[in-house]
Amino acid sequence: MTLRTAAVLGLFFLSVTMAHAELRYIEVDSIQNIPLIRIKSLDDFESILNENHISIVFLQRGELFAIVGSTYFAFPIGDYKSIQDYRMGSRRGLPEWC
């Protein structure tokens, strides 16, 4: 997806600097009819991002999505809006809805 396509679709952009890479988070309304793999570990999800040089992550209803080829990889983050927020909240023992 190009930036122009994302702008036409009215997607929300949020830039966040991460220790491992700079990620751009795009909030989406819906994702349909896609091959989807849900990842249980944040470390594994981040490995997928790093190994595939992914810089754009989609956010929808408490899940992060990354596209590799024609497959979406997802990780649940609750009400957090970035990996960094999720990690900080998890370290402090906060629930996912904080």
What does this 3D model show about the protein?
This protein has about 100 residues and is α/β, with parallel strands linked by helices. The protein has three helices and six strands; from the N terminus they run αβββαβββα. The protein is globular, with a radius of gyration of 13 Å. Mean pLDDT is about 80; it is low at about 1-20.
Sum this structure up briefly.
The protein is an alpha/beta fold. The protein contains 3 helices and 6 strands. The chain has a 6-stranded mixed beta sheet, covered by helices on one side.
Give the key terms:
globular, alpha/beta, 98 residues, 3 helices, 6 strands
Low-confidence stretches: 1-20
Structural class of the secondary structure composition?
Answer: alpha/beta
Biggest sheet strand order reads 1-2-4-5-6-3
Q: Compute the gyration radius: what is it?
A: 13 Å
Distance between the terminal alpha carbons, to the nearest Å?
Answer: 31 Å
Helix content: 25-40%
Please work out how many helical segments DSSP would assign.
3
β-strand percent reads: 25-35%
Please state the average pLDDT score: 79
Query: How would a textbook summarize the main sheet?
Result: 6 strands, mixed
Order of helices and strands: HEEEHEEEH
Q: Can you count the beta strands?
A: 6
Choose one word for the global shape: globular
